[in-house]
Amino acid sequence: MSQLARPSRLKSRSGFIERTLIDINNTLEQSLFAEKIARQKGLLQALDARLKVIAMLMLLLAVSLSHQLVIIAGLYTGALILAAVSNISLGFFIKRVWAFIPFFTGIVALPALFITPGPALAYLPLGLVITRTGALTALFLLLRVGTSVSMATLFVLTTPWNSVLKALGVLHVPDVLILTLGMTYRYIHLLLHLANDMFLSRKSRILRRLTGTEERRLMAATSGILLGKSLQLSSEVYLAMESRGFRGYPHTMDRFQMRWFDWAAGLVVVFVTLLAIVGR
Amino acid sequence: MFLKETLKKIPRWMYMYYILIALWSGTTAMHIPDGYLSPVTCMLMVLLVMPFWIRGVQRLREKMTARNIPLVALFAAFSFVVMMFNVPLPGGTTAHAVGGALAAIILGPEIATIAVSIALVIQALFFGDGGILAIGANCFNMAVVLPYVSFAIYQAVSKNMPMNSKRRIIGAAAGGWAGLTAAAFFAAVEFGVQPLLWHTADGTPLYAPYPLSVSIPAMVIPHALIASVVEGAVTALVVAYLIRANQPALEIINKTQITAETSSFARWRNLWIGLAALVVITPLGLLAPGTAWGEWGAEELTNRGLSFIPKGLAQLSGLWSAPMPDYNVPAIGNANIGYILSAVVGILVIIGVAWLFSLLVTGGKKTFSEDVNSK
Q1: Quick count: other Cβ atoms within 10 Å of Cβ B342?
Q2: Which DSSP symbol is given to B326?
Q3: Is A46 on the interface with B (CB under 8 A)?
Q4: C-alpha distance from residue B348 to each of A108, A134, A183, B343 (Å)
Q5: Same domain, B220 and B349
């Protein structure tokens, strides 16, 4: 596998190849980093993955059902505490959660401040009026999205991908789909590397700026080649699987075991969820 | 040339404005995060997608059994990677495509549903792109509406045409554009019904705040102008490339599926009818209570929550005046306990459906190894 390109941010203005390279590398980096955290010692890392899947779903439901800002804020504080005791640096955690999705949610929620009918809360220049209802609804959306993303991020950061897949079996997701999910994840990395190589090799042979038409042609050709490679690989992978004794269903090697610690954590989650729903 | 002249006349700020709108709608709207939709909507969307997942897995098992696992896995990985490509737009900006239309053209819509769903699940689980409770809604918009609409248009335009026909490129472009626009429309409807159905007693919306009159134009117009154009262009460009360089890839669909059947739509008539019924009923059921906006008393509102599907049905059968507190298990009399009970029932229903799904998929067996053995 080639060395990953690290184009500098300054050059990102110069075209789509650089931007695509940056995106590809960020994705690879993100997934490598998550696996690293998942292998550290910490509270959440020590829990059974099955329990974590169910706990995450319950907490997401609690966040989603709650009708009071205080409760959602409380759940968010809980997520921060969990991050802290699971060896995830708070700065990194907050940045990762809030940098992207809730940030855009903020942009989405902004007009709601003004256009939701309700009693006036504050008057701004240009005749804009922030309504109480508008402010509340924007807060609801923002907090809810941020807290939900935090819960999901906690789960993903503290659980190795293999355990995530196996834990999905608890939810009765069919074996075939879990196997496919696992393979997809693996081949995403391979295809990302391939795309990275293709773009990098092309970029290193370009002297001038490409025109828009040329860029689009290049993008389409790269996608097309990648598609061809995927299809070719898929039949090769199947042959490889068959020759290693694949009979149509996957086997998992290790077994999960629930310990008292897991049961205790499960009880806490059930309690918190019920509390949040009752108090809504 | 004429187009270029016209484009030049549009003021720069207008470009910027639409690019900004497209930016947020492209990044947030299509991958709906958790918190935008109420849990009930999320559950309903899972139920809506379920038949398509079952159909897709059935299709996978029917034709090539285990051989299809790597095919779908690789294609899902491909869709994921393609979603990451920056597509150069005129004016120096870039945008992303979803790739659902391309998947439908290569694999057929049923299998495309599975491939795109898997890519979406990985995005949601691993990269926080799109919510986990909202996975049903995201899969419905991007893994069902997008591939089926694109494929129908692609087939209509290019059916029985030779492999190198220009009409395939045109069909791919039109299909990609229409598919994503339709997906944006469905997402807008999902957003737009939230403030009608779920708000506090004083009218503060609890989830996505904009009504249909705002959400539909805000989603559909920028998508139709930018994101869908990108989707259509990417699909067409890649199909054009495949026609030039890799025609067998375009013929895979004939190997994994029965062409005559696909084009006639006859064999899935029941699925189409059921689906059409669902699609018709759902917005009605969702919209119906909206007409009663303002008439809702505070005490009635506390009894809402998980109950809008029955309400919609009740409305349809002219029983709207039926009292609603029944959802609270009257004997207990405590709204909260009744609420929790209905939530528990909801969860049980989901698990039950998922279990049923796994039974269907595996045909009651633990595995489907026998398919391979009998081959």
Answers
A1: 17
A2: G
A3: no
A4: 34, 35, 30, 9
A5: no
The pTM for the full model equals 0.68
- B contacts of A195 (beta carbons < 8 Å): 81, 84-85
> Within 10 Å of residue A128's Cβ, how many Cβ atoms?
10
Is the pLDDT at B370 greater than 60? The verdict is no
CB contact under 8 A, A101 and B340: no
Q: How far apart are CA B314 and CA B202, in angstroms?
A: 25
Domain containing B351 equals 339-375
Residue B82: CATH number of its domain:
1.10.1760.20
Query: Quick check: B340 pLDDT over 60?
Result: no
Give the distance from residue A24's alpha carbon to the nearest chain B alpha carbon, in angstroms: 7
Do B113 and B26 belong together in one domain? yes
Q: Using CB atoms within 10 Å of the CB of residue B277, give its burial: 0 to 12 exposed, 13 to 18 middle, 19+ buried.
A: exposed
Structural domain boundaries in chain A? 16-39+173-205+213-249, 41-159+257-280
Query: CA dist B20 to A83, B228, B233, B235, B306, Å?
Result: 34, 15, 20, 24, 36
- 26-45 in chain A: CB under 8 A from chain B: 27, 30-31, 34
**B343 CB near a chain A CB, below 8 Å?**
yes
Q: How far apart are the first and last CA of chain A?
A: 52
In a domain? residue B200: yes
The residue with tokens 């695509």 is A20
* Gap between the Cα atoms of A177 and B135, Å rounded: 15
How far is Cα B237 from Cα B232, in angstroms, rounded to an integer? Answer: 8
- Complex ipTM, two decimals? 0.73
Is position B325 within any domain? no
Report if residue B287 sits inside a domain: no
Residue at B23 is within a domain: yes
